[in-house]
Amino acid sequence: MTLPADIEDVLVRSWVATKEVPGFLGENEARFLGLAAALIPAPGAIVEIGSFKGRSTVMLAKVATHYGLGPIVSIDPHTHNLTPKDGESSAPASTYDEFRHSLRAADVEQHVEVRREFSEEVSRGWSRPIRLLWIDGDHSYQGAKQDFVNFMPHLSPLGVVAFHDALNNFPGPVRVFVEDVLRSDKFGPTGFVQSLAWAQYRPKSGGGALHCGTN
To answer: 7-81+88-201: which CATH architecture?
Structure first.
């Protein structure tokens, strides 16, 4: 596949906006997501499970907007269980206002379909094909497995599934990646970019081949 002539400029400009957003996505990881969003030869939506304050959302939305790929579907209840400080309310903290601020500041709010729900709730009524499935929500094994199982039936052939923090100290993403992706014969090219693990869905020709690249 031929790269768009302006892809490097688009990735650079998208990262400039993205790095202003609080979060844990590294530059190489963000650039990979942007590149995947632009180049995946499959129809469907770009779905993000776990948005936090919008770091990956902004990167994906900037690239998708430039290439006319439709809105990013951002799935996150924004009820993160952050430990309150002394004297603060014990109610679960919410990142929703900061998330919305990030989208507005990056001028992508109109290019994001916000689903302020748990991913399991969204999956019950989901019927659209998916071209990029970005799993960065509940990092427990049960959470990562549930997101994979619930949304994978909608991933288009030649689409890509990616997990964040697969090489960090979390039990879920790497186990699901190994057990359900690497051991499957439905995926083709796979690899890692820092802690991000990815694979292309090729149900008819995957053959379980492992092609790893690191950054």
So the answer is: 3-Layer(aba) Sandwich (3.40)
